[in-house]
Amino acid sequence: MRGWGGTGCPGFANLDKAEPLKRGVQCPLANETRVFRISDPETGATCRYAAVPSSHTFSSAQQVCTSCFGGQLASIHNYHTNAEMQFWGGIEIKDTEFWIGGVIDYQNQAVNCHWADGSSWNYAHWQQGYPQHSGHACATFCVTDGLWRSASCAQQMPFVCEF
Asked: Fewer CB under 10 Å: which end of the chain, C or N?
């Protein structure tokens, strides 16, 4: 099950010591992150998130989520979660955009989107004209309007983990 409920947070205790975990990943200190919860009114499930304000590439952010929180970059499956993510992201991350777990591939003029955590792509909240990019791109969340944009996965920006 993908991070729902109170399943504990593997590696979270290491945040106080900033000890590297698997593969030499340097975990953020506890005072450098903000953990929050979002409950889904449709399913009753609650998921935990960690807002990490330091900038990383998409791949590096995903490694931090996996190694330090035992989770993945956040996936968003409904409007309620998107609105809550806009609220918490706006409070906890001072930049206007942050990584979420969306991956975009363009093949033969077709757009194929999927979540890094393997969950179904059953909701999208793209800004008009997005996703735009060629080849391979990753999804960003804009806190000013709650809309998603596509960007080069090599860009560095803050991110939100789901665990």
From this structure: N
Count up the domains in the chain and report the number: 1
Report if residue 4 sits inside a domain: no
What pTM did the predictor assign? 0.85
**41: domain CATH number?**
3.10.100.10
pLDDT, tens digit, 9 for 90 and up, residues 97-131: 999 999 999 888 788 999 999 999 999 999 999 99
Does 22 fall in a domain? yes
CB atoms within 10 A of CB 82: 20
What is the Cα–Cα distance from 42 to 84, expressed in whole angstroms? 14
Q: Are strands 97-107 and 148-151 parallel, antiparallel or unpaired?
A: unpaired
C-beta separation of 77 from 38 below 8 A: no
Cα distance between residue 147 and residue 149, in whole Å: 7
Using alpha carbons only, give the angle 79, 93, 44 rounded to the nearest 5 degrees.
Answer: 35
Full residue range of the structural domain in which residue 78 is found? 12-162
